[in-house]
Every structure is written in structure tokens, then in C-alpha cells.
Automatic annotation (TrEMBL):
<dbReference type="GO" id="GO:0003676">
    <property type="term" value="F:nucleic acid binding"/>
</dbReference>
<dbReference type="InterPro" id="IPR012337">
    <property type="entry name" value="RNaseH-like_sf"/>
</dbReference>
<protein>
    <submittedName>
        <fullName>PIWL2 protein</fullName>
    </submittedName>
</protein>
<dbReference type="Pfam" id="PF02171">
    <property type="entry name" value="Piwi"/>
</dbReference>
<dbReference type="InterPro" id="IPR003165">
    <property type="entry name" value="Piwi"/>
</dbReference>
<feature type="domain" description="Piwi">
    <location>
        <begin position="178"/>
        <end position="247"/>
    </location>
</feature>
């Protein structure tokens, strides 16, 4: 038994953050602060410490003194790398993202998805229908060909139903390129069971999408589907982009 002194213990991490959308958004906002925003917040902290008599006394007791500004030094700025697609090259935007380019043009190497299996519970059939429509709409601009899947609709959302249906479908059909499953939101147990089955027992590339990610405005769904298609292409052996870094 390990006994911890409460006054000397600090809780770390965030438990069940994915179930709290507001907290998740706040954490993401903190993570994507720009350098300028970081600087302003540090400057504000220094100013608050300097203007607080209690903080100043505490620093003086420790023999510490804080500068009025953060330390500045000359940094080495690396040149921007050129991103290569199949038909053209480009320089990334200032925020170093190039999602828009790789979803509107053909990647370096594309794998056609002709033999694949789609599994979803009956309650989410409308999401499956929207997903298929969005995949057909997005794949052309990305140079991908996505054929009609073999569809298995589940009567319930139990782990056993997913596992049994996957095993039966993969065992009765020719070699499948891909298994795509739509699962209810917050069901990590189903996700884990599907991945274990596809990694260990019946090896096949798999893509699992939660219902929550397919809900909302059509533009959001389209963005999710574009990212899913990029993941699928990579999992099947495709190549999205490259850079000109010499050996």
C-alpha cells in the first residue's frame, strides 16, 4: 500500500476529457496558441507578479528577481520545405498546413478501393448513407476511386454483434482491402475489440469512425471524410506527399 500526503499530491492529466466537449475545446485552444499569444500571456504574468506586493515579498525572501521581459535571443529560421504532390509542388501556408492542397489534388500514389466492407448499427444507417455520399463526392478530386462496399447492418450495438459480423463477412468473401466500421460515440470497448480482431485474428486494414464525428454541418462531415480518405490511402500503401530533402 502506498500512502500519499494530500497536501503534497497534485492531480495530473484530464480524465474522460473526450466526453466533455467544452473542456476539450478549451484544452485545444490552449494548445494552439501562437508564439505572439504565448508572449503576451507571459508578459501579463510577469506584470501581475511585479504589481503584487505579496509576490514581490515572496521573491525577495527567496533572493530572486524577475526581469521585466522574457529572455530574447536570435533564433535560426529554417527555410520552408517544398511539398510535392503528383502533378505539382507548392510551399505550405504560414501556419505550415497543407490539408487543403492534398484534398483537392491527386497524391503521389493512390490505391483504388474496390473490395471493402462497411459495417454499422441500424440506428446509424442515415450516417452510413451520408458517409458513402461524401466519400463519392470527395474521392474524385483526390484522385481516388472508391467502389461500392459490401454492407452489413447490425440489429444492435453490442461488441459481440460487431465481432461476429466481421468474422463472418471476412471469412465468407474474397480478400478484402479494407474494413470500415461506424460505431456509437464513446464506445472505446467496441473500438478496441475491432482493432484487436483486425490486427491479430483476421489481419485486414481497418478504419473506425465514431457517430459523433459524422454529425453536424455538411462542411464538417466533408472535412472528416477527406481526412478519412487520406488515412485509408496510407493504410493501403499509398503515398500522400513528399519533400525534397537530400540524403
Amino acid at each position: 500500500m502506498v500512502l500519499l500526503v494530500p497536501e503534497l499530491s497534485v492531480l495530473t492529466g484530464l480524465s474522460d476529457i473526450r466526453k466533455n466537449n467544452r473542456m476539450l475545446k478549451e484544452v485545444m485552444w490552449e494548445m494552439v496558441q501562437s508564439p505572439q499569444q504565448h508572449y503576451l500571456r507571459l508578459s501579463s504574468l510577469l506584470r501581475r507578479v511585479r504589481d503584487s506586493a505579496e509576490a514581490s515579498r515572496e521573491l525577495q525572501r527567496w533572493g530572486l528577481c524577475l526581469d521585466r521581459d522574457i529572455y530574447r535571443t536570435q533564433a535560426h529560421v529554417l527555410p520552408v520545405e517544398r511539398i510535392n504532390l503528383r502533378h505539382r509542388s507548392f510551399l505550405p501556408a504560414e501556419d505550415l498546413s497543407w490539408h487543403r492542397e492534398v484534398t483537392r489534388e491527386a497524391p503521389i500514389a493512390v490505391i483504388s478501393v474496390n473490395s471493402w466492407l462497411l459495417i454499422y448499427p441500424k440506428r446509424l444507417q442515415h450516417l452510413a448513407r451520408d458517409l458513402l455520399a461524401a466519400m463519392r463526392s470527395c474521392c474524385g478530386a483526390m484522385g481516388m476511386q472508391v467502389g461500392q462496399p459490401s454492407v452489413q447492418e447490425l440489429r444492435d450495438e453490442r461488441i459481440e454483434s460487431y465481432v461476429r459480423t466481421i468474422q463472418s463477412a471476412l471469412g465468407s468473401q474474397d480478400k478484402m482491402q479494407l474494413l470500415l466500421c461506424i460505431i456509437p460515440s464513446g464506445r472505446d470497448d467496441i473500438y478496441g475489440a475491432i482493432k484487436k480482431l483486425c490486427y491479430v485474428h483476421t489481419p485486414v486494414p481497418s478504419q473506425v469512425i465514431t457517430a459523433q464525428s459524422l454529425m453536424g454541418h455538411p462542411s464538417k462531415t466533408r472535412s472528416v471524410v477527406q481526412k478519412v480518405l487520406l488515412q485509408i490511402n496510407c493504410k493501403l500503401g499509398g503515398q500522400l506527399w513528399g519533400v525534397d530533402i537530400p540524403l
